[in-house]
Amino acid sequence: MNPHEQNQQQAAALEQRALLAGLIAYLVWGLAPLYFKLLQVVRADEVVAHRVIWSIGFLLLVLTLRYRHRLIQHIRIPVRVASALVISCSLLAINSLLFVQAVHSDRVLETSLGYFISPLVSVLLGRVFLSESLLLPQRWAVLLAASGTLYLFVSIDQVPWFALGIAISWGLYGLVRKVTEVGPMVGLLWETILLLPAALVWLYWLGLSDIRSFGQFGTAIDGLLICTGLITIVPLVLFATAARGLPLTTLGLMQYIAPSMSFLLAVFLFREPFTWSHAMAFSAIWIALLIYSIAGWRQMRHVGI
């Protein structure tokens, strides 16, 4: 085997591992409602507090194994970056709280809607704040998705606040992280560190108020709360692996796996109401995402990416 063929095989093997890692990451995110349904006896704010606390431990373990004696040097960040991460960690906490509360409130369908809308929210934010250009089909896609969402708002009795909150908070989070010069894992570590004092104080207050669940519902619930750190960190590590080895087009299309799975769970397992209005709105959003993805793919092919 000549060196060129050997390099091709190695590249193919790397891409296969990256694809597998990406699939597992999005499968974990897509099945996350099942996990948090098991924690319905715990307040959503307590779940998020535990998610913050235990994520720090698992993140430090991953980064220590990766960088060993260079860990401190690697995670050091400037003050201006830390200031930006204060904003991003607040948005991340809001997004996580909305997601968990939606699952606990039997509104998983809204989480799916929110994460379907969020890429298009990011497009609008990029256009407004970063002056990013949009192709004409992409503009039509954003308009179509907005129309479908608006139709849902006026057609059902209750406004899908969870979907709106999830989409907007995640879109703003992505915007802040895009303009913040820090790696994904290090940034997440500092976000959780910055949230740690609030999480500890909140758990302390819940304990004083005698409404804390940790230690009250048995070892199974305690174990699930501890493992919220794993549920948070493991897919992120796998996603980082996928991002290094997959084309952006493949990675971009894979992001719809998780909300699609949440949609299926909500409709077929949790039996949440799915009306004609939902069908029209989701159809408009799916078509919009398809138009946007095809336009982006064609543009990347044109410029040779």
Descriptors:
305 residues; mainly alpha; 13 helices; globular
Summarize the structure.
The protein is 82% helix and 0% strand.
Protein model, in words:
By secondary structure, the protein is an all-alpha fold. It has one domain (3-303). The protein is built from 13 helices and no strands. Helix 5 packs across helix 13 (276-303). The longest helix has 35 residues, at 3-37.
Which percent bin holds the helix content? over 70%
Number of DSSP helical runs = 13
How do the helices and strands follow one another from N- to C-terminus?
HHHHHHHHHHHHH
What is the straight-line distance between the termini?
29 Å
| Percent of residues in beta strands | under 5%
**Poorly predicted ranges (pLDDT <50, ≥5 residues)?**
none
- The tally of structural domains comes to 1
Number of strands: 0
Give Rg in angstroms. Answer: 20 Å
Main sheet attributes: strand count, strand direction, barrel closure: none
What is the structural class?
mainly alpha
Q: Give average pLDDT, whole number.
A: 86
Q: What is the general shape? A: globular
Write the SSE topology:
Blueprint (H helix, E strand, L loop, with lengths): L2 H35 L6 H24 L3 H5 L3 H26 L3 H23 L5 H20 L5 H18 L5 H25 L10 H8 L1 H18 L2 H7 L2 H13 L6 H28 L2
Helix pairs in contact: 1-10, 1-12, 2-4, 2-8, 2-10, 4-7, 4-8, 5-7, 5-12, 5-13, 6-13
